[in-house]
Design a protein that fits this description.
The structure holds two protein chains of two kinds. Chain A is mostly helical. In chain A, 46% of the residues lie in helices and 3% in strands. Chain A starts with a strand and ends in a 15-residue tail after the last helix. Chain B is of the alpha/beta class. Chain B has a single domain (3-24, 116-404), classed as Alkaline Phosphatase, subunit A. Chain B has helices spanning 3-7, 21-25, 70-78, 93-101, 104-107, 120-128, 143-152, 173-179, 199-204, 212-221, 256-271, 274-278, 310-313, 362-371, 383-386; strands at 10-16, 41-43, 49-51, 130-132, 184-188, 209-211, 227-230, 237-238, 244-245, 280-286, 330-333, 341-343, 407-409. The chains are: A mainly alpha, B alpha/beta.
Chain lengths: 87, 410
């Protein structure tokens, strides 16, 4: 038997209305993201408060660099995958 | 263990927005469905009986967003009863929608449901694979707390839309997977749509996220994570190139057809990669009913370990997370699932056969049990989640040939 193929109807262009008044869901989402951004700024402020000129050891400077890199490139902080590792 | 379960490498969940089971699937006429007879009704504010009507429209009928916050859903389920011995009767939908429309005629639209032919993607997926007669929202309330159950197996005591803070030691399903040496990702549609609710994770675990474009690429190149959660587009946008991007979440009053197209796109992305298709199960489920009528009374459930105070519920009563929310559409897709499977099919006498009540905590429970069988030794999830139903037993020993599975012409 040939495969059943379902035609997917197109959505009319008139469906698009970016001027529609936003509902509670989108407004809540914006507030949640605003809250997350405040946390993020606090983290950035904490790193900015460190004066790198006061750091003298490789250990201290590498710790600082790690913090700055984590802010500038957060995707680099992907956890190591440990097969069978403990939680 | 079935052959389908042995072959399973990927679980994918697509969570849509705010439509009830009856509204989307209640018009299907297949044996075993607990759908609509056409005689179900609710009273309106003038005392008239308003019957369900197969006249739902893709857009424009629910411009006033139906109430789906906790007090509104309480009204819908109990019909406005307030006494201690009240009984759930699903008689308050029209009355409650009047509070949003202030128009008696418009309030009737909450009883409308779709013709199956109007929703060729959802209805064909449901009938060609499996659908659930008994999948309920986790809370009789709005989006944020319900989506939390899909991610954490709990809403940490929240019944509303407020930002919430995570409480140790509960881990999200994504963190469990990564810490357990597995792979997991949340794919949001694009930056302008972003993620809903899990900003806790977005802030602290950005590596868990990808875009929908990446999901498509990951399917194509065969690097899909073991567990993926997909978020539709939540807003009508103007793209970077000036083009129109239409919301695909199906939240009223977004056009339902765009959500259909999105489901078809997700399905096709998996189906066209043969290795992925035979090793993946796709669940399409809605976060909550969005204030739209369903005739099934939500059942009791294992209490969630929290109590929301009366001022938080807005009903004057506390809530112990011991009752599920309103029923939502849920469809499970895999070539290892026989055509026409119905979970908890209804018998001719109107009772359910082997009734199993699913909810959003079933998602992390299913994923955890499959990929992390030793997880519970660390006690980092709720009893509510652990006692929820899981769905991988629907995979059988027989894989359907590729040309036996539907395709979509996008």
């Amino acid at each position: 038997m040939p495969r059943k193929v379902i035609a997917v109807p197109k959505t009319p262009k008139e469906a698009h209305n970016p001027n529609r008044r936003a509902g509670t869901l989108l407004r809540s989402q914006a507030l949640h993201l605003h809250e997350a951004l405040k946390w993020h700024m606090r983290d950035v402020q904490a790193v900015l408060a460190i004066n790198p000129r006061t750091l003298h050891t490789e250990g201290a400077i590498s710790k600082y660099i790690q913090k700055v890199t984590a802010v500038l490139h957060p995707h680099a902080t992907e956890p190591q995958i440990k097969q069978g590792g403990e939680l | 263990m079935s052959e389908g379960l042995k072959a399973l490498k990927h679980i994918v969940v697509l969570m849509m927005e705010n439509r009830s089971f009856d509204h989307m699937l209640g018009g299907l006429k297949v044996p075993g469905i607990n759908g609509l007879t056409g005689n179900e009704s609710n009273p309106d504010t003038k005392g008239n009986k308003v019957k369900v009507s197969q006249s739902a429209k893709f857009q424009g009928q629910l411009e006033a967003d139906p109430d789906h916050h906790f007090p509104g859903v309480d009204m819908q389920i109990y019909g406005g009863q307030t006494g201690d011995n009240r009984v759930a009767n699903m008689q308050g939908f029209v009355l409650d929608y009047f509070t949003q429309t202030n128009d008696v005629n418009k309030s009737h639209a909450i009883m409308n449901y779709f013709k199956p032919d109007d929703l060729p993607i959802l209805t064909n997926l449901a009938t060609e694979f499996a659908f659930f007669n008994t999948w309920f929202a986790s809370i009789p309330g709005p989006t944020i707390c319900n989506r939390a159950f899909a991610h954490y197996g709990t809403s940490f005591g929240q019944v509303g839309m407020d930002f919430f803070y995570l409480l140790d030691p509960i881990l999200s399903i994504y963190e469990r997977m990564i810490k357990g040496g597995h792979t997991s990702k949340l794919y949001y549609y694009n930056q302008a749509s972003s993620t809903m609710e899990v900003v806790n994770l977005l802030k602290n675990q950005p590596q868990l996220f990808g875009t929908f474009e990446q999901f498509i690429a990951d399917c194509k190149s065969g690097v899909l994570p073991e567990y993926s959660f997909i978020e539709p587009c939540y807003s009508d946008q103007i793209g970077d190139d000036g083009g129109a991007i239409i919301a695909s979440d199906q939240h009223p009053d977004h056009d339902v057809r765009e959500g259909e197209r999105f489901m078809a796109t997700v399905y096709d992305a998996i189906r066209i990669n043969p290795d992925l298709w035979q090793s993946t199960i796709l669940l399409i489920v809605y976060d909550e009913h969005g204030g739209i009528y369903d005739h099934v009374v939500p059942p009791d459930c294992t209490p969630g370990g929290y109590t929301a105070k009366p001022d938080a519920t807005g009903t004057g009563r506390p809530f112990s997370f011991d009752r599920l929310g309103v029923r939502v559409p849920a469809v499970l897709i895999s070539p290892w699932i026989p055509r026409g499977t119905i979970v908890s099919p209804m018998k001719s006498d109107g009772t359910m056969q082997n009734q199993r009540n699913f909810e959003h905590a079933s998602i992390p429970n299913t994923v955890t049990n499959h990929f992390l069988p030793d997880f519970d030794q660390n006690n980092k999830r709720t009893d509510r989640e652990k006692k929820s139903e899981t769905f991988l037993d629907l995979l059988t020993d027989t894989m359907r040939p590729d040309d036996d599975c539907i395709a979509f012409d996008l």
